[in-house]
Amino acid sequence: MDIDAQRTERDSSPTPDKGAGQGSRFARFLARAARLRHRPVTLFALCLTFALLLSAVVAQPFLIPSSSMENTLQIGDRVLVNKLAYRFGSEPARGDVVVFDGTGSFVHREQGENPVTGLLRGAGAALGLARPAETDYVKRVIGVGGDHVTCCDRRGRIEVNGEPVSEGYLHPGDAPSSVEFDIVVPEGRLWVMGDHRAKSSDSRDHLGQPGGGTVPVDEVIGRAELISWPVGRWRTIDAPGSFDRIPAAAGPHG
Fold it and tell me: E strand or H helix at 48, and its extent?
């Protein structure tokens, strides 16, 4: 038996096969590295898309741009706005802090903005990284449809349906209002005010305009429920118990 011949047949060639289906190890390494190089970009795009969808449908971070809600909310706070709070039959209640689109109620002129700039700003605002649109506002609900809201009683307090409201959330030193008003809130609308009454442009400033300063419930974006940033200000935003004793509205005519 030719042992040397058998050994030669069993030995593999030291030279790799370079046929059409094969490539050098280095070439395969480069191809794999190229695929991996694009994965972080793909993951980032997927995460960004998911975050934008979540912000559009479920909950949106909202950057507080002004001092109108101090000390409850401060400039630079990021609040988490629950967009599902009023989607399934529920409506804004007295004491809720809401974010709404003021177009047609607080804003009666078109806001000019470069489309590209608007798109970028909108994406940043949806993630809580940029200022919200100039037509978006955050205020506290004081009266709902049918409520008779007046200011002020002998002690300077706002009354809702004849009951004075104890507003412990007001900015220190602020009066409930320096402007007198007497309004019955139309059905499907809200009377809203900032907690920093001396610095807030709210329903009082639009009394002579269409809607009488009230905001349509349909324009409410959601309820502010949590201060998520900065970490040192993390807390929930709860409706005060002072609104619990307000009697039901007597009717559309107060």
Answer: helix 25-57
Q: Is residue 190 domain-shared with residue 81, that is, in the same domain?
A: yes
Note the pLDDT tens digit of each residue in 19-69: 444 457 766 665 665 555 656 666 555 554 544 455 454 678 899 999 999
Q: Is 199 a catalytic residue?
A: no
- Same domain assignment for residues 170 and 119: yes
Query: What's the CATH code of the domain at 108?
Result: 2.10.109.10
Q: How many domains does the chain have?
A: 2
Question: Is residue 18 annotated as a catalytic residue, yes or no?
Answer: no
Q: Which of these is catalytic: 55, 68, 200, 203?
A: 68
What domain range includes position 29? 24-57
Tell me the C-alpha distance between 210 and 123, whole Å: 31
Assess if residue 100 is contained within a domain: yes
Q: What is the pTM of this model?
A: 0.73
Q: Which of 83, 105, 139, 177 is catalytic?
A: 139
Residue 172 φ/ψ, nearest 5 degrees: -50, 130
Q: Are 227 and 218 in contact (CB under 8 A)?
A: no
